[in-house]
Amino acid sequence: MKLQSLRRAVFGMSAAALLTVGAAAPGHAAAEAADPILKDLAAAQGIYYGTAVTASKLTGTYAAVTAGQFDSITPGNEMKWGSVEPVRGDFRWSGADAVVDFAEANGQKVRGHTLVWHSQLPSWVENGSWTAGSLRTVMTDHIATEAGRYKGRIDHWDVVNEAFNEDGTRRQSVFQRTIGDGYIADAFRAARAADPAAKLYLNDYNVEGINAKSNGMYDLVRQLKAQGVPIDGVGLQAHLIVGQVPSTLQANIQRFADLGVDVAITELDIRMPVPATEQRLRQQKADYKAVTQACVAVSRCAGVTVWGFTDSDSWIPDFFPGEGAATPYDENYRPKPAYYGIAEALGWSGDTGPGPGPGPGPGPVSGCAVTYA
Ligand code: 9MR
């Protein structure tokens, strides 16, 4: 990595953060860097800016950018049930512990992800022989154990993840099939009991705009609030496609806010066919800017989390063959136009850096030479 890029990456890190991430971060880079610091800009707008992380990568430049640019982190996989208790009673906390410890060392919030989800669920849960009562007990015990372990250290918990089908009906997960509609209220009550300080979220994808699925979520949140179920927020994952930010995003955030819950953009990425082109990167910048602006515009929008900050740590290429380049930094930790789009949405109006246009100069993007103009 060029020294200039590394300086950009770590600009704004505290001395403590630099010590935490170790030798890869140059000690006094901050004073020389010109690029904006997303977490500082976000704080000035009253929101946080976060990223999903992979615990095993939290060293060197990856750690430096994570700590230098973001004030919230979400473990991408390490807190899922399949990660923490793959075999009944056999707990593996090291990955989750590492993320929470990193956040605390660097003054960051943690979004806990996720307590109840149909996916990355251990087979002993998925395929067990349960009654409604026995699965409810297993589920609430799991919540008590995990949320209890991190009590007081988690800002937001994604208590229930991806509970809906695209038409707004309930997904027929093992929890829905076995326990019935009430499993969501049971999960939120268990989470509140385990960690009263954490904000408790219902999280899903394809609910960013006003549509059948987000209508289903809206109706449920209204019911839960009416029943006194302790739900604090709604997470809009926002796994988006370049050029396709829903036009109703801000109105959707606002209608949930009007129900009396917070909203967060929890897993933002914006994918495109690869190799990336200059035109797509420019559109992606506009898209990241639009999503961030929509959050800034609604006072109950708590913040934005990108689902991996670098194209080298993104789920997209594995799940969508032929697509990628979905995050704000390229595979070599160089800020992409999207990064500047985020900064602009957060009120930054500075120089986009040396080189012919946005970004630190031309360089390879997903294997293709791109010149920003
Ligand atoms: O980023 C996660 C990836 O590493 C895993 O392979 C994948 C498995 O389902 O889960 C990814 O994260 C998902 C998140 O937990 C829930 N919303 C969708 C995310 C992308 O699949």
Structure description:
The chain has helices at 3-10, 15-21, 38-44, 60-69, 81-84, 94-105, 123-126, 132-149, 174-179, 183-194, 212-226, 249-258, 278-297, 316-319, 337-345; strands at 48-53, 72-75, 109-117, 156-161, 199-204, 233-236, 239-241, 262-273, 301-306, 323-324, 363-365, 368-370. It has 373 residues and is an alpha/beta fold. The longest helix is centred in the C-terminal third of the chain and has 20 residues, at 278-297. α8 runs parallel beside α10 (183-194) and α13 packs parallel to α15. Helices cover 39% and strands 17% of the residues. β1, α4 and β2 (72-75) form a beta-alpha-beta unit. The chain has an eight-stranded parallel barrel, surrounded by six helices. Strands 11-12 form a two-stranded antiparallel sheet. The chain has one domain (34-328, 337-345): Alpha-Beta Barrel (TIM Barrel). The two termini are 22 Å apart. The site of ligand 9MR has 9 residues, from loops. Ligand 9MR binds next to loops.
